[in-house]
Design brief:
By secondary structure, the protein is α/β, with parallel strands linked by helices. The chain contains eight helices and seven strands; from the N terminus they run αααβαβαβαβαβαββ. The chain has a seven-stranded mixed β-sheet, with helices on both faces. This is O-methyltransferase.
């Protein structure tokens, strides 16, 4: 059976619904030379958040707020999202768009800093959902720290888990590819997580803390 993933992905992005505020976040992301998550990935995050119903969640990689909006829309009205990014200007854009979307300001806590530094300061086993959307070269440090923050039954969702097909190609020995392969190899040996790899966009890995 022939599978044209690019055509399917493009169709899915057009079929899956977006909204004017998220579209604005994507447009502004281009001005910052940032690649936001797709409509399909955003919809997946919203669905996962609705299923988990997290009161406390984390995202590493605020960007201009596409994933921030997706997560907050799936979380309960009492849910608070801690959003971490190195770029304070992009976080300011994300905060403004959260307001435009009529989401209460107290529901998102923006923290400016390196993902690993901020995660290390957050309480262990205290979050129902964590989303990583950072530079894959840092995943060998970020993933263990993120898992430590997830409570039992909670989810860790990792973007760029397949690097758009690079991870599955043995001949690809680029540094970021090798880092992601090593992280995936280590996760396969753990008996305290259940894992599901979704071939969406750059690859979305969903881990459940057992």
């Amino acid at each position: 059976m022939s599978r044209d993933w690019a055509i399917n992905a493009h169709y899915a992005d057009r079929f899956n619904s977006s909204d004017p505020v998220s579209d604005a976040a994507r447009t502004i992301a281009a001005e910052y030379s940032t690649v936001p998550i797709s409509t399909t990935t955003a919809g997946t995050l919203t669905l996962l958040a609705r299923l988990v119903n997290p009161v406390s969640a984390i995202e590493v990689g605020t960007g201009t707020g596409v994933s921030t909006l997706a997560l907050l829309r799936g979380m309960p009205a009492s849910g608070v999202l801690t959003s971490i990014d190195l770029d304070a200007d992009k976080q300011a854009v994300a905060r403004e768009l959260v307001g435009v979307a009529r989401i209460k300001a107290h529901r998102v806590r923006m923290i400016h800093g390196r993902g690993e530094d901020v995660l290390a300061r957050l309480a262990a086993r205290s979050y129902e959902l964590v989303f990583l959307d950072s530079e894959p070269l840092s995943y060998d440090r970020l993933v263990p720290l993120a898992l430590e923050r997830v409570m039992r039954g909670g989810l860790l969702v990792i973007n760029h888990a397949l690097l758009g097909g690079a991870v599955a190609k043995p001949a690809n020995r680029a540094p970021r590819t090798q880092v992601v392969r090593q992280v995936l190899s280590e996760l396969e040996t753990r008996d305290d997580v259940a894992r599901l790899m979704l071939p969406i966009d750059d690859g979305l890995l969903v881990l459940t803390r057992l």
